[in-house]
Amino acid sequence: MSLAPRAVLVHRRTEYEELLARHGTHGQAAFFLSSRGRSIDEVARRHERTRQALRDVASAVPLTWRSTRVERADLDRFLFAPEDVVVVVGQDGLVANAAKYLSGQPVVGIDTDPGRNPGVLVRHRCPDAAALLRAAAAAGSTVDALTMVEAVADDTQRLVALNEIYLGPPGHQTARYRLGPDGNPAPGEAQASSGVLVGTGTGATGWLRSLWLERGSTTPLPAPSDPRLLWFVREAWPSPATGTSLVSGELGRGQGLRLTVESDRIVVFGDGMESDALELTWGQSVRLGISATALALVV
Hints:
Elements: E1 6-11, H1 15-23, H2 26-34, H3 40-60, E2 66-71, E3 84-90, H4 92-99, E4 106-111, H5 129-137, E5 143-146, E6 149-153, E7 158-161, E8 164-168, E9 175-181, E10 189-193, E11 195-199, H6 207-215, E12 228-234, E13 248-252, E14 256-261, E15 266-270, E16 278-280, E17 285-290, E18 295-298
Helix pairs in contact: 1-2
């Protein structure tokens, strides 16, 4: 007998909760903000809207379903199951934060603050939650399959991301490595830079787009469902020992970019979550390409 679906409500601490964690009481937090020309009232109102949204979505879960909640900081320790329906309650970025831990489960994005969030990934409102949950669990539900990027190290470590993957030094030092197409017998070009960014069409509205504009690239940015990635080397440094001939490119399905580490330590993380990163050292290599897993975002 198959298990009933489980609704997993993904959320994050509000700004108000972070202020209380830092200052202890509402009064202390209010004093801190007022000393900087801000009022705590709007922060508290946004907090209450978010809490109410969580209550509304939780009440919309069918009675025959199981349900649970997971906070953003605990995503890397949470075990998602195949029968889960993931409901992200919050901002667009929270969908990207959750995506890297999923393997095809349908995702419903609920915008807790319409007008303040772009609503690119959190496309729906709380009153629609009940119908969306039933639709997501039904066979043949309508979803957008959003392309994801993956990094696979030579020691089998793997990382996936919805927006982009960054490879570079953990601080403000220079990363040294060799870079080239995967499968090429040549060792690749020796480079020194502040890192490499490989992004998707979903990430083309953020960090990837800023690099694309900075370079004046003529390569069209991919759409979120396009099986295509763009990559850029950040601030490559030319020297007698390092080159700058491979600083940008495009990857289609089945194509890969290989980076081999030639410095003490390089970190690899996705969608800004540096706390959950791969760490590579001298001689290790990593392949970047399109992930076989896509994000199933309920439309």
